[in-house]
User: What shape does this take?
Amino acid sequence: MATVRAQAPGRVNLIGEHIDYSDGFVLPFAISSVTTATISTREDLVITVASAQRPKSVYRTTLDDLAPLTGEEWARYPLGVVWAMKELGIEQGMDIVIDGKVPLGAGLSSSAALECSVATALNSLFHLKQSLEELARITQRAENQYVGVPCGIMDQSVSLMAHEGSALLLDCRDLSTRNIPFEIASHGLELLIIDTQAHHALVDGGYAERRASCEKAVAELGITSLRDISVADYIAAGTRLDDLTYIRGFHAVTEMKRVLDTVQALEAEDFTKVGQLLNESHRSLRDDYTVSCPELNVAVDAAIEFGALGARMVGGGFGGSAIALTRQSNIEEMKRAISAAFSANRFKSPRFFTSLPSEGAHVI
Ligand code: GLA
Assistant: This one.
């Protein structure tokens, strides 16, 4: 019996939201919370999946029985990765034990952390020699086809490829990357992560529907992707699109520009500008792409009112987390202000995290 243990982090996205599936550039970083997968080979073809968080329920299947869209809800994520990697040379069963420390349902990509910890462990355990880019595509395929969630490639890529101290500028077209130093602590700044604890029912349908609008805009404009059109050309061509398709595509093309502007501002250490770009991103997600929700808007507005340089929702939307770029000296007051605004609106109390940009997945 051989055993490998690997860990993979969750993520926050500094900027570049809902554009990974349009071949855009995104700028996420890995957070310090990780999921750990310990995988041991077996002599037979049985696969068991257990979790430190739910010690009483062990899910059991076999290598031959793996089939998309089956099985217990959470076990589908690790099993999907085994399914997607099986053809690469997995011929034995295994015992998988997961220890997930990335907060669930907070929009911090606990599912990508889970998938990437399993993929990294399997890659090493079975000597599959897959590159990080290949592992990103494999884990995305597991989530798209086995679990049935039509996500893009951002979350898995950053969980695998991130570097400590940097945000990851990821080109979602070819998965090339550049590390952009994000050492805000030395400037007296901090990134506050606000988990609204809200989760709205729109999540699944709303995501797929917006993705379809972007694909429709691409088809009607006769381009390869929204990546291939400037904001000015998009506006000029806009009369060829219906209003809903136009405004959704408009979010995508303007967000792509904001990502590149943010990289420039970070390189110039112009954090006021970074803050403005975060605010513009939120406005675009709230008003043009309509993926925000009252809890996220209250969190962002309260953060800005109490002195944040900028704030925005992160991830898929309709709940989950927001981020606020703020002075370290201001952070406790800001948390109190956001909590007070939530209680005035009769929302569930928010949870707060901070995290420095952390290392991507690796064997431990
Ligand atoms: C979710 C998806 C990602 C990305 C974001 C929005 O996190 O998993 O692929 O599309 O939403 O930016």
